[in-house]
């Protein structure tokens, strides 16, 4: 038997793998439903995904379904997103990034002018080498510390290529065009991080997106969570929604089970946590063997948070795009605002607009937009208090005005809006301050040496965005693969 804390994507994936390996699995989830940050919202005939807008590395999910006795393509209709994303820069330049990696340099030259394409192709060639070094070999295997990472590099040349002291922003200084540098820096936000602190090795993120393509399930990203839930149910996993774990209990030999908010105890020698690692080690586990990971976590910052508008719009947008990114004049100020000593809502934020146009996602003649801007976490007293009266509506108005300045004025089409602040995400998902991606990757240790999947407390394991190998849908799914392999068959 195994107990899984949390029914996010990592929790669902590890539950499926453990059940397929013969374990009797119980998943305990404090929320009323499954999926964690991969959520959905419906109102008046509009349905919005409230989490990720694209799926990368689809093979990771095919492997999960195959390994547990099913076929992903039967459970989910994955479709190419082409162009993968539409970008608008502050000077009005636009760029459509093709689904096909080989076509990206030509698109960059057409939008930004030579030598943008040649420089990007050279950068991606280096990223391909990094992917060989620290991509799948690290992402699919446990990593216990610096020594394990060094072992992955077979010679000094490999270590120099990894260059943990170099940042993504620093790597971008080799690109001539400011717009191309912004395009590169944007990939830091895939892990909720600051490009000025994110190790340059994370240039593998755009490489992966372009090499393996951008995808979207027909019917919305929430369908992925539903498919994972069904896979677990078919394998006999039992779910307990609206049930909060308040403690992981231990004895001298290790884990003995979990204690629930109502006082009930669930006894088991195998516990997997899909909760934030800081919450696990800081609040749920009271065991001296957990002190080491807790000390290490004190030097790691949670990822940035998100401020979201769900917009119900009359009419249809001309020249629609699945995913748009609208850059500000001063992109660096976004990261100064969020990660600086005195965090503040970004005064001129980058706007991310997702409108996949799935049939049935809006009433006839209408469309729904998911609009995200990066935001500082909810930290009353020391940072931004997103519950301050009036702040959410004021900032929502600012975001709509920002869209209008960048050529997407939808204020006269607006039927209604729903606002989700970092404080709302914290309450809904139990993520510290509403951090979207678990821990940030600001610095080599945070990026490459997250809390291990096997805890120092025997029988306690971790999955999810705050554990190795990191955040993002395919990556947390790989954390489940690692953890299930560590636990082994029943």
From TrEMBL:
What are this entry's molecular-function GO terms?
oxidoreductase activity
- Pathway note: Carotenoid biosynthesis
Question: Which BP terms from GO are recorded?
Answer: carotenoid biosynthetic process
- Name the domain of life this protein comes from: Bacteria
Organism, per UniProt?
Actinokineospora bangkokensis
Oxidoreductase: is it a keyword of this entry? Answer: yes
Which protein is depicted? Phytoene desaturase
Amine oxidase domain ranges (all copies): 10-487
